[in-house]
Amino acid sequence: MPPTVSITPPEVFIDTGGFLALHVPHDPHHDAAINCRDKTLRFSSLYTSSAVIAETVAHIQHDNLLDQRNLNDLIDDFLTPGKWGASLLPVDEQLLMKGLSMVKENQNRRFSLVDATNILLMEKHRIGIIFAYDTFYDGVSIMRGFETHFIQRIGP
User: Fold this and answer.
1) Which residue among 21, 83, 86, 119 is least packed, with the fewest CB closer than 10 Å?
2) Which structural domains are found in the chain, ordered by start?
């Protein structure tokens, strides 16, 4: 019998767009997000940040994307991390300051502070895959030790 090989699940960072696509039925990416969840995310180690959660809830409330009952269900999922399976990565003061500098340097009005902190958290925790729909993640490089890797975006 061949030796057993341990397989480490891929690590995936979930962005606001990923959460919105999964939880908002009329989101244009909803079906693709559900497919991605069923075929990829459920076999992955998932991560997000408090900034992503705050942005997700703000988008839902501001754009009235879910009724109050469904918003409460999503918030309950966030309050019970084991239920949605993602580990929460902290955004500390140093990361926040670096993120603000990135936003200032980028000068793309659609590149937010949350996007910048996502990239920095992925670099810090050596996560190479993001579940997002923002195409500006394509071609973004992060350092992994002494090597440069490109972020891989999953989602259509």
Assistant:
1) 83
2) 11-154 (3.40.50.1010)
CA distances from 134 to 111, 114, 153, 154 (A): 9, 12, 9, 10
- Number of other CB atoms surrounding residue 35 within 10 Å: 14
Q: What is the pLDDT of residues 7-57, one digit of tens each?
A: 788 899 999 999 999 999 999 999 999 999 898 888 888 999 999 999 999
Q: What is the pLDDT of residue 86?
A: 84
Q: How confident is the model at residue 119 (pLDDT cuts 50, 70, 90)?
A: very high
Three-state DSSP string of the chain: CCCCCCCCCCEEEECHHHHHHHHCCCCCCHHHHHHHHHHCHHHCEEEEEHHHHHHHHHHHHHCCCCCHHHHHHHHHHHHCHHHHCEEEECCCHHHHHHHHHHHHHHCCCCCCHHHHHHHHHHHHCCCCEEECCCHHHCCCEEEECCEEEECEEECC
What average pLDDT is seen over the chain? 88
Residues 48 and 151: their CA atoms lie apart, in Å, by 15
User: Residue 116 corresponds to which tokens in the numbers above?
Assistant: 């910048």
